[in-house]
Amino acid sequence: MIKVHVLYPNKDDVTFDFDYYCNKHVPMIVGLLGEAVTGATVDAGIASVVPGEAAPYVAISTISFDSIESFQTAFGPHAEKIKADVPNFTNAIPIMQLSEQKL
């Protein structure tokens, strides 16, 4: 299984609309990518491991696929539309990482 992690760095001036993200952006992605998506989660950062420090990421989204190829085939044609929606919910610049689940 392949997981696409989208991490939104947290800074003092970062804004993030979880309502929009969870109810519009993620459903849009799942709708566009269709059956290639095998699961999706959204986590809100609440704290650092150091007491009193803010979480390093305001949000982390994980979307699962069977393979890198299924992700690339599904995502490629819709990449620009998905990226164009980002300013509708955050001013953070997302970081993406593809990972292979081992456990």
From TrEMBL:
Pfam families: EthD. It comes from the Bacteria. SUPFAM superfamilies: Dimeric alpha+beta barrel. Coiled coil: none annotated. GO terms for molecular function: oxidoreductase activity. It comes from Alginatibacterium sediminis. Residues 18-90 form the EthD domain. This is EthD family reductase.
